[in-house]
Amino acid sequence: MSNTPQVTAFFDQATFTATFVVADPATRRAAIIDPVLDFTPRNGRTSTQSADAILAFVEAQGLTVDWLLETHAHADHLSAGHYLREKTGAPIVIGALITKVQEVFVPLFEADDVTPDGSQFDRLVSEGDELPLGDLSIRVLHTPGHTPACVSYLIGDAVFVGDTLFMPDYGTARTDFPGGSAPALYASIRKILSLPGETRVFVGHDYLPEGRSAFVWETTVAEQNASNVHIHAGVCEADFVANRRARDAQLEAPLLILPSLQVNIRAGAMPPATPAGHVYFRIPVNAI
Question: Among 176, 164, 147, which Cα is nearest to 244's?
Answer without folding.
Answer: 176
